[in-house]
Amino acid sequence: MKLGTKFYNRDAKVVAQDLLGCYLMTDLPEGKAIGKIVETEAYLSIGDLSSHSFRGLTKRNRTMFGPPGYAYVYFTYGMHYCVNVVTREKGVGEAVLIRALEPVEGIDIMKRRRGVMDIKNLCNGPAKLTQSLGINLTHNGYCINCGPIAILPKAEPVEVVTTTRIGIIKSSDLPLRFYIQGNPYISKR
DNA sequence: GACCAGATTGTCT
DNA sequence: GACAATCTGGTCA
Questions:
Q1: CA pair distance A157, A7, nearest whole angstrom
Q2: What is the spatial distance between Cα A96 and Cα A68, in angstroms, rounded to a whole number?
């Protein structure tokens, strides 16, 4: 079973919760790397001042306004990449930011790419997991499950906790951050 | 463990 | 010209 357009073409806050427990995989020449999604955040198109899509379509965020089920990768703070999954129909501008993974496969590759030995420190942050999985700007706009980036369905149901988002100033009071209850691999702060 | 500053560049005002 | 959906390494306790 594969997660199709129907799965992604829903409210970002619904998709964000449903993605918890699913597996994010990259299959690059270096090798395969898989992690379980344990933390996400939803970014909406209306009333969400911190969403990149809030000010309308720009060169940078055009992927967010594309069809659902695509990877939106952006560059920030002069040195970091973050991955999102686009939700809703083309032109809406909603996405789910993937904030943390629990390493499952290809851990040696992740360690090499990160230069860190501690497993708990490989994917517990949005910029860390992109580095571990080898994701960069060239993957922006890729269709998920038709390229080197794939998302696999969850193996078992998970217990979801809802809180406010992290690392932003505007609209930081909205309850749009979700993570798996009790999982040791989430980012903290 | 908690708090603080620095890195570094694309993008928007 | 200012700032950003962040991380790391330092200091102090």
A1: 16
A2: 11
Q: Residue A189, CA: closest nucleotide via C1'? A: B2
For strand C, the positions having any atom within 7 A of a protein Cβ are: 4-8
Mean pLDDT of residues grouped by 10 in chain A (189 residues)? 89 97 96 97 94 94 97 96 97 97 97 94 96 96 95 96 92 94 90
Distance CA A84 to C1' B6 in A: 27
For residue A99, which nucleotide's C1' is closest to its Cα? Answer: C5
Residue A56 CB lies within 7 Å of the nucleic strand B: no
Q: Are A161 and A178 in contact (CB under 8 A)?
A: yes
pLDDT score recorded for residue A169: 87
The residue to which tokens 């992109």 are assigned: A130
Measured in whole angstroms, the distance separating CA A127 from the mean position of its chain's CA atoms is 10
Q: Is the CB of A117 under 7 A from strand B?
A: no
Between vectors from CA A7 to CA A153 and to CA A71, what angle results, nearest 5°?
Answer: 80
